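Filed under: proteins

Residues; backbone shape codes:
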Amino acid sequence: MSILGMRSWTMDGPYQVVGGAALPTLAYLGHISTSGGTINIGDPSDDSLVVAVLQYNSSGVRTLNSLGIGGVSADAVAGSAASTGVYIRSRLVASGGVIAISWSFDAAPSAHSVEVYKINGLASTSAHDTAFTISNDPTAQLDTLAGGVLIAGVACRGANSAFSWTGADEDIDATAGWGTGRYSAASKTNTVAAAPHSVQASGGTTSECIAAASWR
């Protein structure tokens, strides 16, 4: 039996369940291009879920060994080994302030970028659903809940114009450090219940990859 505002821990994982009727909030905090770079996550809060969207570009398949948020290994959310790919990782960070984001691969990619988000007020910090797709103008199809949030990232290796998003609102679209490739990230708040909800990033060329996750 739950009481509004009480917190409990799941028995089968590191995820915190937070009671409360208010809708979760989501903030895009910025971009990091160097492992060990820092970002300010704002005021301390014991329900702050920091989400890192790691995009990379390489001539061969690369596997993410680890991604640390605030010096602690983050939990896997979405993504898989690819030559140009996207991984999503998350971790509860109560401390606030400036934290470091670091990562390592089995072999160095040609370029990489991390977009950082913070979600507060979730009923559960375990993602409700995730998606990962490699295709031309890739679409991520994942279930969403009413009043939830969604985060997605895309990467491509070929020269291209800006990405165009449907199903989510763009937060960043850039080429810095990527040669002829490009990366972008998008998010959505107050989602509606859908099974599935489609998020598409169109406009890229060559080895396009998208990953997405939803929470409530």
